[in-house]
Amino acid sequence: MTVLTLGVHIVDVLARPVESIPEGQDTHLLEQIRVTAAGAAAGTAVDLAKLGVPVASAGAVGHDELGDLLLMLMERHGVDVRGIVRKTGEQTAASILPIRPDGGRPSFHVPGANLTLSTADLDPAQVTGARVVHLGGMDVTWGLHDPAFFELLTAARRGGTLVTMDLLSNMPDLMQGARAFLPHVDHFLPNEEQALMITGASSVEEAAAMLLAEGPAGVLITLGAEGSLVATAGGTVRVPALRTPVVDTTGCGDAYCAGFIASLLAGHEVTGAARLGTALAARVAGGLGSDAGLGGLTLDHLQRLADEGAGALPATEGI
User: Where is the Carbohydrate kinase PfkB domain (predicted)?
Assistant: First the structure.
């Protein structure tokens, strides 16, 4: 194992294009429906596996059919799922995502077993034995807001493990809980809304500076069509978005994290890794679901896409 993704696991059911909900018993015919392994831990794990990075995942799912499906999907893509526990009496987290023609994604969501994940469910050796631990969705995995888990992260980092963190929600009430993880994280990758909510800052530059002051060596704030802001002790850089046709924005944040992590493991510096994260996010935006367009993609190919700056696709939207 090289990477352990730890946190939120969700089954996504996606349909496109959806312009309205049918009245009564009416039926609308669509172009595509997919089921994917998603969430800030599971989605990132699948993307890493598709890039050829050895990855395991840890989290909680229910003893139900959705849990069976989620584990099967992750294993099919090459993710080691032995760290995912089954919770009797809990539903596996799931979302229904009607994707609009412009790529927007309203959702219907059941948080399910993710809310029950605790430090006792984890194998400490998985955490301390990984080169990178990616924390996915610490804002909603309340059972990990635990001094014992923080001590485990400290032990892992002392042994050379790099810790990255992404969030799941944009709910103000959950942001301050996630803030407690910052002293235990090397690179924090929130979106713009999350960064502003956590800090109360009036700009992303101010938010990045405030977040850096709380412990991370790097803060990477994703800005949608405006790209991302990369902040380290050496300064602040804006990484532009790539121009690509957008089908669905689901999982773009997870893809950004996966590309960033894979690039760091390949020896790239933080800003260069952010460019590969941007390229992977653009690739995912061109299809339906959090792992769209990644079949057969290698890190070398991803590097070429980042260097070309347009993903070899016509320019229509920025991701």
Answer: 14-289
